[in-house]
Amino acid sequence: MTITDLPTTAFWRPGDPIGDREFADVGAVILERGGSLPAVTVAYETWGSLNAARDNAVLVEHALTGDSHVEGPAGPGRPTAGWWDGLIGPGRPLDTDRFFVVASNVLGGCQGTTGPSSEAPDGQPWGGRFPSITIRDQVEVEARLADHLGIDQWAGVLGGSMGGMRAIEWATTHPERVASCIVLASTAYATADQIAWCQPQLLAIRSDPQFHDGNYYGRGVSPSDGLGIARRIAHVTYRHEGELAERFGREAQPGEDPLGPDGRTGRFAVESYLDHHAGKLGARFDANSYLVLSEAMNSHDVGRGRGGVAAALASFAGHLVVAGVDTDRLYPARLSEEVAALRPATTLRHIPSRFGHDGFLIEIDRVGHIIREALARH
Ligand SMILES: CC(=O)SCCNC(=O)CCNC(=O)[C@H](O)C(C)(C)COP(=O)(O)OP(=O)(O)OC[C@H]1O[C@@H](n2cnc3c(N)ncnc32)[C@H](O)[C@@H]1OP(=O)(O)O
Ligand SMILES: N[C@@H](CCO)C(=O)O
């Protein structure tokens, strides 16, 4: 597959099959970086039942390109199978005999919650006009969802990567509303390295001639080349050097010769693998959401304006669990260890994996064990 063969962008629009989604209108939101969104809708899914005391709810926070479909098959309105399939259900780590599990699509996303592809007040898609948002704005919207569901305190808030950013922000902004917080393969603040890896990704999208300053909806085009390049860069950071060496080595993609006379089209197997992931993301994700969410991640710092990370975390009296993947080069395990050092009451766990950052999505048994252990206190 060459770059220009990539499919055009797909995202959820009103009128599409709703799958298992429910929707909550949570009103206008004043944004941290200025401006506002006059009417925010949140798409969410639930598993299990809220008990009479309304104290058994757990919020699962998805990562950059995830959505509310944590568990269950793909199907109409559900472009992908659950991204943590196997973790939610009777007797599972997120045990639906005990817990009411909630997962929403994040503010700025493209699977039903208000984002750049949603309608602005003038009836046209927001597109490039969608305002800059922060992780704190996303948590504000999730707090409104909790209010809508009648949940004063979550038994648990948990997530990996960008989902972990929102989980730790929840514990900091609303310490009284979180009993247990589980932060996987994540960080208390976006590091220089994470911001640096992000920059060429955003430039790739914005440099795509089909980007049109973010106003590509309705033109029959999308900046899929730029989004594909962004995903290739990101995907390498999500995996481990040793894994790529072991899986692909210097092998050529079958039927192709990267060192032959036509070496410009013949690919190494690892290049074909990256092309595949670029194509998959282009088929299920909106480039504008990729930009907005990436910049929200760059904003992340629970200590900003609060006297630093240690002072910010001091307000949280609940149970905090942090776990890093030992081969994660993007969110190295030292960032989890740093949180545990700044807040000594924290439980520190490790996720051994050969897969790097994506280990938090792949090592289901280990992740399930950490979740089960943390929620056993409840
Ligand atoms: C599953 C979802 O996408 S749910 C939606 C939400 N998603 C997320 O939050 C995370 C997005 N997904 C991801 O980041 C990753 O796909 C993961 C972490 C979930 C999966 O990781 P892994 O299971 O290790 O898959 P891996 O990275 O090895 O990729 C396998 C794919 O590469 C393909 N592949 C492997 N080698 C090659 C090659 N040489 N050339 C082309 N394709 C290749 C496989 O055929 C397979 O394709 P498929 O996924 O279409 O079946
Ligand atoms: N593979 C994950 C990595 C981000 O943490 C995603 O696409 O959301």
UniProtKB/TrEMBL annotation:
A GO CC term? cytoplasm
Q: Indicate whether Ligase appears among the record's keywords.
A: no
GO biological process assignments? homoserine metabolic process; methionine biosynthetic process
Q: Name one GO molecular function term.
A: homoserine O-acetyltransferase activity
What positions does UniProt annotate as the active site of this protein?
161, 328, 357
Q: Which reaction does it catalyse?
A: L-homoserine + acetyl-CoA = O-acetyl-L-homoserine + CoA
Q: What class of enzyme is it?
A: transferase
Report the locations given in the UniProt record: Cytoplasm
Q: Which PANTHER family match?
A: HOMOSERINE O-ACETYLTRANSFERASE
Report the family membership: Belongs to the AB hydrolase superfamily. MetX family.
How does this polypeptide assemble, per the annotation? Answer: Homodimer.
Q: What is this protein called?
A: Homoserine O-acetyltransferase
Q: Which organism is it from?
A: Knoellia sinensis KCTC 19936
